Amino acid sequence: MYMKNLLLTGPPGSGKTTVIRAIIEKARDLSPTGFYTAEIRKGGVRQGFELVSLEGERSILSDIHANKGPYVGRYRVHIEAFEAFLSTLTFDASMHHLFVVDEIGKMECLSPRFRSLVSALLDGPVPFLATISLHGTVHIEAVKHRSDVEVFLLSQENREGSADLLLQKIRRVSEPTR
Fold it and tell me: Rounded to 5 degrees, what angle do the CA atoms 22, 24, 25 make?
């Protein structure tokens, strides 16, 4: 039996977002929806993180210059803006056959709306692909230890070909839903 919930984890810089973006490109026939996270850099220095929906909408998740919001490391998280961004996303099983979230991390899990969305996507009928922190909060660990998920640990050794392998797994479970 194949799991419909695939979680990609690994240390920072292991290529999780790169693999997710490659899968999104190769899975256009599944009409994927969701979002990925991109670094905001100035002068080669990371300033924060931006959310990018697969429909092209953008919002700031966190940055080092904000004067409000909770800290995660040196970044202040824009919870209200994140929740507003989430409300623009449409996870509709009749239109989309792959749901993507990059990432289930400490910043994102500060949002009750996000935690609820992740639970609904995990419990729903559509294949769900997400990146998830290697180490994290109680919520992050609970998601990784659900019986209906497969966690894939990305490394330097297995990064090449990971997108194709994960896409094969997604296609095996998505066929009955299409």
Answer: 65
